[in-house]
Each structure stands twice: as C-alpha cells, then as structure tokens.
Amino acid sequence: MNKGARTKQLLYDCAIALFKEKGYRNVSVDEIVRKAGTAKGTFYIYFESKSSIVGEMMHQYDAYYDSLCLEMSPSQSVEERLDFLISRSCSFTEKEIGLDLIRVLYENQLQMRPEEQEAMDINRTLYQVIISLIREGQEKGLYRQDQDCLYLAELLIRCLRGTFYEWCMKDGGFDLKQEGLEVTRRLRRSF
C-alpha cells in the first residue's frame, strides 16, 4: 500500500472509530484529522466531505466480501456457502459497521439518484458471488432454471437489505444474523 492509500485508510479508520464512539452526527472533520494527525487539507484530498467516508464503507464491504470468497470452499454446498455469506454479512454489518453508520449509509443512499448508487451496482462483489452461487444451484437442480439468476440474486439482496433496513428501524431490536438467515432461507426455498 502506497503512502496515499495508507493516509486515506488512516483517515477512514479514525473517522469510523470516532463515529462508533460518539455517533456520526457528533463528529466533525476537525476531530477526524486531529485523531489521524493530519492536516484538514489532507482530508479533502481523499474525501469530499464527512458523508463521503460513509460512501467509502461500500468499498470496505466489497473488500470484506472478497476476503469471504477466499474462505468459502467449493466442497461446501451452494446453500452452505450462501448461508456463510449471509451470516458473515450480517455479523459484519452489526459488529463492524454498527447501527448508527448503517442508518447514515441508508440516509445517504436515499438522497442519491439511482445511477449514483454503488450499492445497487451488479458488478459489486456481493452481486457477482450470489449470481455465481445461484447459477451453480440452478445447474445442480437445486433452484428452478426458468428464472434468470440475476433476477434471483437481486431478490435475495433486496431481502437482505430490507432486513438490514428493518433492523435499523427497530433500533437493533432483533438478532440480525438470525433474522437474515431465516428470511433469506425462506426466500431461497421459493427459487
């Protein structure tokens, strides 16, 4: 990692730590740069605003999904790999991102035009992995072949995103991992 990438990661890590400690709305750019030990101008080289740090979370999610792919084994069934991916995604969202930041992420996404939303880009790692697993499931006769695997992947991701959204609305009032697995398993039975 070059110096610029390290500086950007440092700013991101410091911001996330402060957001978790104090809440997103209670943290200023000044506090972030003070914690990172950088100048305010340096912050704006890497991020347009405090809210763009939340956008960077999408890239962190993708890096996390890339690492999960390395942990999955082709010897596992399609269902086991999907459960693994969903379970770890829920745990990452709950423990690493947290309720406050996932709310802010959704707020930011709701203010964007559809073409600006990276979260819905089918080229993202999560989409590609789920498409691949559903296609494999169709080839093995686990899922119906009369449905487009991209469409089924979108349904599954919508279901998971909806579970995250409701978890936010209920102020983290249920076990995200347990609920995420339950609702996505029920949906997959219809595939």
From TrEMBL:
Keywords noted in UniProt: DNA-binding
MF terms per GO, please? DNA binding
Q: Which SUPFAM superfamilies match?
A: Homeodomain-like, Tetracyclin repressor-like, C-terminal domain
- DNA-binding region listed in the record: 28-47
Q: Which Pfam families match?
A: TetR_C_4, TetR_N
Asked whether the keyword DNA-binding is assigned, the reply is yes
Q: Which PROSITE patterns match?
A: HTH_TETR_2 (PS50977)
Q: Which domain of life is it from?
A: Bacteria
User: By what name is this protein known?
Assistant: TetR/AcrR family transcriptional regulator
InterPro entries cross-referenced by the UniProt entry: Homeodomain-like_sf (IPR009057), HTH-type_Tx_Regulator (IPR050624), HTH_TetR (IPR001647), Tet_transcr_reg_TetR-rel_C_sf (IPR036271), Tscrpt_reg_YsiA_C (IPR013570)
UniProt xrefs under PANTHER family: ACREF/ENVCD OPERON REPRESSOR-RELATED, ACREF_ENVCD OPERON REPRESSOR-RELATED
Q: Which residues form the HTH tetR-type domain?
A: 5-65
